[in-house]
């Protein structure tokens, strides 16, 4: 290799050595265009000098790497510890708690089941609208035919904010997913004129100031359903819910009704289903009665339709609300609703889908 080529390499060495001293990420020096230019030149070097030139460029690269290795601080070999575990900071390092062995996480059982539930309803032609976790008095009560100061408002034990909205009302953590009804009915009312039904399911988290026990939680999930069209009857409601329950529990289910009261449905009903565990012979899940009280539902009250701008004599609809935890507890014979939010890994891991990674 002639002197000219050697001095070219020496020049680049000088440049890169100087520049690397000021770099925070020293490895980035290897992206320098001067170094790349040397490599790019190799094919053009006369054959008799090409090999020695290539070796010299590689040697330059090694020298720069050695230089970086000498200047960069050595990383200490620190073993990982569980900083959240209680221990005395002055205790010897080998006595400090080790990290617990990690496992891959999995979807929460409620979300796995909710996916299945929504799949059933979408296959029946319902679309999904997500609920919201803070709402106002109008959507929670007034739009659902709860008159001002009506005692039924107290049944819901709602959480409210101290802050007030423009109507001087507190904001509300919704106590039911029905607070979405007016929004969906108003938004889709023109579909009815085109002979399309309004058919929506609304999953959402709801909040009630309840005393917590094995059957009650202050925070839980609900699935609302609404269907509006012309010539809709309670028979359509019962057929829809029966079809859903039979697909979700994968067996034949009987349903019966008993009268109930909600301000936003008329008539209002409670659906009671035959126990999917014992086929009505009686077991622990159905408290040895053969039947399980499952959900509230009814024909949508004409006032609720009117408040959304729907002409109630021309169109009718039905609605229901069911606790997702309730459906899942019956399916897997889970006795305590608090397990879902307990963070207990032994409970949650029973539902992990091994191949869902
Ligand atoms: Zn039973």
Describe the structure.
There is one protein chain. The chain is 34% helix and 19% strand. By secondary structure, the chain is α+β, with helices and mostly antiparallel strands. The protein has 2 domains: 1-102, no CATH class; 109-351, Bira Bifunctional Protein, Domain 2 (BirA Bifunctional Protein, domain 2). A 7-stranded mixed sheet has the order 1-4-5-9-8-7-6, with helices on both faces. A two-stranded antiparallel sheet has the order 2-3. A hairpin with a 4-residue loop joins strand 6 and strand 7 (265-274). The longest helix has 25 residues, at 47-71. The radius of gyration is 34 Å and the shape is elongated. It starts with a helix and ends in a 9-residue tail after the last helix. Bound molecules: zinc ion.
**Alpha-beta classification:** alpha+beta
Rg: 34 Å
Ligands bound to this protein structure: zinc ion
Question: What portion of residues is helical?
Answer: 25-40%
Instruction: Tell me the number of strands.
Output: 9
CATH superfamily of the largest domain: Bira Bifunctional Protein, Domain 2
Q: List low-pLDDT spans.
A: none
């Amino acid at each position: 290799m002639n002197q000219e080529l050697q001095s070219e390499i020496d020049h680049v060495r000088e440049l890169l050595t100087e520049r690397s001293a000021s770099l925070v990420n020293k490895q980035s020096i290897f992206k320098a265009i001067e170094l790349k230019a040397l490599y790019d030149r190799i094919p053009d070097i006369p054959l008799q000098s090409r090999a020695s030139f290539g070796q010299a460029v590689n040697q330059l690269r090694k020298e720069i790497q050695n230089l970086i290795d000498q200047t960069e601080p050595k990383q200490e070999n620190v073993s990982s510890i569980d900083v959240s575990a209680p221990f005395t900071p002055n205790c010897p390092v080998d006595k400090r708690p080790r990290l617990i062995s990690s496992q891959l996480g999995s979807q929460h059982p409620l979300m796995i089941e909710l996916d299945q539930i929504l799949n059933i309803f979408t296959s029946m032609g319902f679309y999904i609208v997500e609920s919201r976790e803070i709402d106002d008095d109008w959507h929670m009560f007034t739009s659902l035919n709860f008159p001002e100061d009506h005692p039924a408002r107290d049944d819901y034990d709602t959480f409210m904010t101290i802050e007030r909205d423009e109507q001087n009302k507190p904001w509300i953590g919704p106590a039911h997913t029905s607070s979405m009804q007016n929004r969906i009915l108003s938004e889709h009312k023109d579909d009815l004129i085109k002979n399309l039904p309004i058919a929506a399911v609304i999953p959402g988290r709801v909040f009630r100031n309840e005393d917590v026990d094995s059957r009650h939680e202050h925070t839980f999930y609900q699935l609302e359903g609404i269907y509006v069209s012309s010539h809709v009857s309670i028979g359509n409601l019962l057929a829809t819910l029966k079809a859903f329950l039979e697909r979700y529990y994968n067996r034949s289910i009987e349903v019966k009704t008993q009268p109930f009261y909600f301000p936003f449905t008329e008539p209002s009903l409670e659906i009671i289903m035959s126990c999917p565990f014992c086929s009505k012979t009686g077991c622990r899940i159905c408290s040895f009665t053969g039947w399980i009280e499952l959900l509230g539902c009814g024909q949508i009250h004409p006032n609720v339709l009117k408040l959304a701008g729907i002409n109630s004599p021309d169109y009718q609809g039905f609605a229901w609300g069911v606790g997702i935890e309730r459906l899942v507890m019956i399916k897997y014979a889970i006795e305590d609703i608090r397990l879902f939010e307990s963070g207990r890994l032994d409970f949650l891991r029973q539902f992990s889908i091994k191949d869902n990674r």
